[in-house]
Amino acid sequence: MKRKLLAATGVAALAAMVLSGCASGSAESEAASCTNEIKVADAPQVSVWAWYPAFEQVVDLFNETHDEVQVCWTNAGQGNDEYTKFSTSIEAGSGAPDVIMLESEVLSSFAIRKALVDLTEYGANDVKGDYSEGAWKDVSSGDAVYAIPVDGGPMGMLYRQDIFDEYGIAVPTTWAEFEAAAQQLKDAGAPGVLVDFPTNGRAYNQALFAQAGSVPFDYDNADPTSIGIEVNDQGAKDVLAYWENLVDEGLVATDDAFTADYNTKLVDGSYAVYVAAAWGPGYLGGLSDADPDAVWKAAPVPQWDTANPVQINWGGSTFAVTSQAKDPELSALVAKEIFGTEEAWKIGIEEAALFPLWKPILESDYFRDLEYPFFGGQQINKDVFLPAASAYTGFTFSPFQNYAYDQLTEQLYAMVQGEKDSSAALDDLQASLEKYATEQGFTLK
Amino acid sequence: MTATATIVAPAGRAPRERRSRLDVRRQRWGWLFVSPFLIVFALFLIFPLFYAFGMSLFTTGLATGTQFTGIGNYVKAFTDPLFLEGMLRVLAFAVVMIPAQLIVALIAALVLDSLVSWLSKASRLLIFAPYAIPVVIGALMWSFLYSPRFGPAGTLFELFGLPAPDFLASGTVFYSLVNIVTWQWSGYYMIVIYAALRSIDPAIYEAARIDGANGLQTALRIKIPMISSSMVMVITFALIGTLQFFTEPVVLRNIAQGAIDAAYTPNMYAYSLAFSYSQFNYASTIAFSLGILVFAGSFVFLFLTRKQSGLK
Amino acid sequence: MSTFTSPADTIDPLTSHENHSVRSRGRRRGGRRIGSSVFLVILAIYFVVPIWWLFVAATKDTAGLFSSPAFWFDGDFALFQNIAELFTHQGGIYWRWLGNSFIYAFAGGIGATILAILAGYGFAKYRFRGRSAIFTIILGSVMVPLTALVIPTFILLSQYGIINTPWAVILPSLLSPFGVYLMRVYTQDAVPDEMLEAARIDGAGEIRTFFQVALPLLRPAIVTVLLLSVVGTWNNFFLPLAVLTNEQLLPVTVGLNRWTALSNAGAGGEQVWNLITTGAFISVLPLLLSFLFLQRYWQGGLALGSLK
Questions:
Q1: Across A117-261, where does the E strand assignment appear?
Q2: Interface of B with C in 85-144 (CB under 8 A)
Q3: Contact A77 C261 (CB under 8 A)
Q4: Inter-chain contact B30–C47, Cβ cutoff 8 Å?
């Protein structure tokens, strides 16, 4: 009896090992490890990591139209999950894909570790004309170009028309009017607030500061060891003081963004306004349990000075070629062309709710006149996001942006908890970033 | 044990010679049996450990290259306020969480020991059940339950007319984490203690009863001292686990980014350094420093309780 | 403790003392019994509440999750719809994940048990030089923080070309220092030296002695170590997260975590809260059920470690 048990255990172990061996064997072969189907079996393959929704359709489109190269796509995780894997494989020297989707804010961080290929050698400047100045600046550093832009996040203000109507609030065009609207909402005893101020907004918070002229980082990958840091300039301080006031007066909420709680509050009227990037509408539309009576509209983001409007950007992704790419030229081709056709962008716009940076579709009538049922048919691109995108002049990120954002979150949280005021928060942020940069061997400009 | 010697000796041959041949043979077989485990151990623990230690002796600045800095990193670690704060925090967790789990486990085990019914059998299973839940899923579940919106706290506290507490505020998140760990692990410790209780010779209870001891006195004066060795084992493992606190705060951080920062515990600090900031060398240093402190802590604890645990 | 009776008789303390409790039961005062029972019920409720929540949540669709009370069902019993959706979402990848978890857990668990049995036997029954030192090192290894090992393990696995394959998860899972400890302790008591000597005198080789004399006596501990190893590997999260990229290879813990991250980020149509709760519920069922049916071994085995 016991021997039978042992024998059975042994057989089971063997079976399990063989099965897993089979699984690994099949996973080893290139074709099976792609999430998508390879259309041309003997063409060289370029591995791509990306997390765009509906991306498989874009990949299929590319594979069907390119005989000379096939894309092998995997979703290696979203945002930081993917970056963690990428970072580890850089350190290990293997395991990175040929082409990788990176948000523009982390390009410097990977370029400084020599993980990205300078695409100017592979014809990046051929496509420069297809992108706006701001978009191109975000992927360049000095003369080098580290990625091809894909989508962007020009910002606008999405608001609940029905709530505004209910309380008689006019659509604010300046931040002063915005504050007045918030006060109005509170005085009327509304159950929700005007907007949320998330301390973990990261790029969102940064963009708000940038709108007042804050230029926190001065960095160029061509001179990688020196960096200018000024996160506590007057622009940032003014903006943060403004929001600190709103928080203290109880006019805004301070919930963390991107949690289930936050998602629900976005759609159930707890927040009347969502200062959003162009991918915001897709985000809103995908949230469940939306209030069926909600009427959403889009308007330009409020300004500090209507005479000199400043447009801002939140997020946006690119395709970069990694230094572990087996064939950099083919990889560069994939990066340039995968979102380089109208058809691909139709999928990107309609299925994935992306905001294209590729001019041929960005400036097309199709995109400009696109009516969004979610907004009651409003042509939000024409009204809001196209002007925002075209006036965007780009932004420089630090090569340790993850750390900078974590520190920003900590300082903002401390401020919201009442531990320090806005000016002190930014000064402390400046001090900690300077210290970190020096420790990492940078010279401060 | 003496049986071995008596079998070998009377054979009449030179005992020393025969024993040494047997010894050699035994030695080789000993190594043979242990070697499969040791090979995997060497490959996946010893070797990576040495590699990690090697990494901790170098420093890679983002702007500079990699340089050998020897002990420099360790000096930095032990004077790093983030690391030290994290250590204090896990010590605080240990001081709160371990007694919490232990008290729950001990009382439950004592009650179960004195009560035999279908209820106790069912309770035993239910209390142990959380151990079956992977830590990640458990933390996910609790993050839902703690949510101001979707958790039951709102409706429950409304019944009493009180506002629902924010479980994820910087003041309360500590206790929220204590709760999660207590929930997850008390059952496991309870089973260990229960089994130890069950192995006490019941004749002792009879003697105590004859002497007039009631239930409580029996529990305090007899049961607890007699299971002290397993209690020490339980506490040691809990201590090691708590000092390395990682998974639950990481999962909860997704919904409480302000209250739980990237260096909330030393293990999280090492993780953030490596995976968020790409500082792999310093991350290794922090991990090793943590390991040193865990080892020292366990050693001190076992030394202090050497009488209770029966170790020499 | 007598040397010839196998501890297997005493190793199941739950049943062996049942008689004594029956005799003493009548003498308990009823009041205390009720107090104890109430206490147990409260405790049991505390431990069960989140699991109950999970079950209730699994029966709701996403909208229902966010609109109905946490601990009771909403109007729509959507459990089977959710399960059906698990088959279609992303091509039924959830079941692939579940299958992966099974494979990793059993391959890793069985492998770890085999290694632990052999090593435990070696440590227990053979006096070789360096035995104590090595055993202490093995025990000390539980104190090593996992974060220290991840990068080097990743690099090592990459060098051997097995990163992003099932082996990357299974091989490191073969290490169970606690299993070695349990097996050694149990073998020391359960397998008397005299029996081994007798077998050797009869002319049996070491291997035959091991298989025919020792192994049958170790059954209870083997089952316990097997269960502990399988559970440990099943619940493994950090290791597969670090070494696996291919979505098809993820175990269910990492897979569900990925769905949670996606749902939090909320890009259009990616909110799958109903699948997460249903998936989590299904994934804990195998272990919960095994606990129910294999109680004896659990509780007996954990006693081993505590007695020494």
A1: 140-141, 144-145, 147-160, 217-219, 226-229
A2: 104, 107-108, 111-112, 114-117, 119-120, 122-138, 140-142, 144
A3: yes
A4: no
pLDDT 10s digits, C153-181: 888 888 888 888 899 999 999 998 888 98
B150 touches chain C (CB under 8 A): yes
In this structure, the answer to whether residues A307 and A348 fall within a common structural domain is: no
Kindly report the CATH number assigned to the domain that includes residue C199: 1.10.3720.10
Phi-psi region of C130 (alpha: psi -120 to 50; beta: other; left: phi over 0): left
CATH code (residue A68): 3.40.190.10
- Computed over every residue of chain C, the mean pLDDT equals 79
Chains near C, with 3+ CB pairs < 8 A? A, B
Contact A41/B at CB under 8 A: no
Q: Count interface pairs B-C at CB distance under 8 A.
A: 296
Q: Does B67 touch chain A (CB under 8 A)?
A: no
pLDDT of A349-362, one tens digit each?
A: 888 888 999 999 99
Residue A48 forms part of a structural domain: yes
Rounded (10°) CA dihedral B170, B172, B178, B181:
-80
Q: Which A residues 192-221 touch B at CB under 8 Å? A: 199-200
Tell whether B276 is within 8 A of chain A (Cβ).
yes
Q: Which domain holds residue C263?
A: 90-307
Establish, for the pair of chains A and C, how many residue pairs have beta carbons separated by less than 8 Å: 133
The token pair at A398 is 């630090």
Question: Are residues A182 and A305 located together in one domain of the fold?
Answer: yes
How much is the pLDDT for B22? 67
Residues C155-194 as b/e (b if ≥16 CB within 10 A, e otherwise) read: bbbbeeebbbbbbbbbbbbbbbbbbbbbbbbbbbbbbbbe
Are the Cβ atoms of A260 and C63 closer than 8 angstroms?
Answer: no
What fold characterizes domain B72-309? Answer: MetI-like fold (1.10.3720)
Could you give the ipTM of this predicted complex?
0.81
Letter string b/e over residues B92-101, b meaning 16 or more CB atoms within 10 A of that residue's CB: ebbebbbebb
How confident is the model over C190-222, as pLDDT tens digits?
Answer: 888 888 888 888 888 888 888 888 888 888 888
Rg from Cα positions in chain C: 24
